[in-house]
Amino acid sequence: MPHHPSYLGVFLTFARNSLIRDMMFRANFIIEAISSVSWMAMNLGFYAIVYQKTDHIAGWGRYEFFVFIATTMLINSIVQTFFMPNAQELSELVRTGGLDFALLKPIDTQFLVSLHRVNWASLGNFVVALALLGYSVPRVEGFEFSPWQLVLYPVYVILGVFILYSVMIALAATSIWLGRNQSLYDFWFYITNFSRYPMEIYQGPWGTPLRQIFTFVIPILVVINVPARIMAWPLSADQAPLAVFAVLATAMSLLGSRWVFKKALWSYRSASS
């Protein structure tokens, strides 16, 4: 009887081994964690200064926007912890032939190359984001807590993570065709930059087309905007269309990235061939 590996067990082993590896170089781990948190603190400080000059940015008040920033930090910290280091290493696996060994393992190749390394230092941002969320939400003007917010918010945070992962793994898979894709991080940064701001700022002859493209073609804008709206604003029927679209966009993104990854694998030639 063939033995099917436990994906949860394999992932927990990856996480444990990554933590052990990080703890072997504690100074580097601490420096990475401090650097990551410091970068986010500087971004938060910048917007705190901006809100000293204005009360609203595209309809978002100070604490509403802090909820938006906290949501950005939450989603990005999860992506950077579990997926970013693996996506960056895929081109190296292709170049050195390490992908050959991944293909021989009795486990799904995409799962293996997506999660074999965990960057624990990036979780520092996750803790800071939770603290910022807990500080900001009760201070939102007219705040009225709904139990549905507590249910829907983490669901849409996870959906946002899946969308970013889909874009990332599809970009990383192109290294199988290109041999080496060192522009992955730069291109990823340029695309995800659009998700870090409320979609209301994209107006006018240039902004409106960008909003349409990055909402309905590459659904980057729904990643942060949907969960942030759920937590920062009272739940209303006006939010429903975008929330429903976010679910569909997540499903299509995962299916599309899976197709790209499988298509790329079919084109892969062993390093020894």
Helix/strand layout:
Blueprint: H1 7-24, H2 26-50, E1 56-57, E2 60-61, H3 62-82, H4 84-96, H5 98-104, H6 109-115, H7 123-136, H8 147-178, H9 184-193, H10 204-217, H11 221-232, H12 240-267
Key terms:
273 residues, mainly alpha
What does it look like?
With 273 residues, the protein is mainly α. It has one domain. Helix content is 74%, strand content 1%. The protein has a two-stranded antiparallel sheet. The two termini are 33 Å apart.
Number of domains: 1
Structural class: mainly alpha
Return the average pLDDT rounded to an integer.
Answer: 86
Order of strands in the sheet with the most strands? Answer: 1-2
Number of discrete helical segments: 12
Radius of gyration over C-alpha positions, nearest whole angstrom: 20 Å
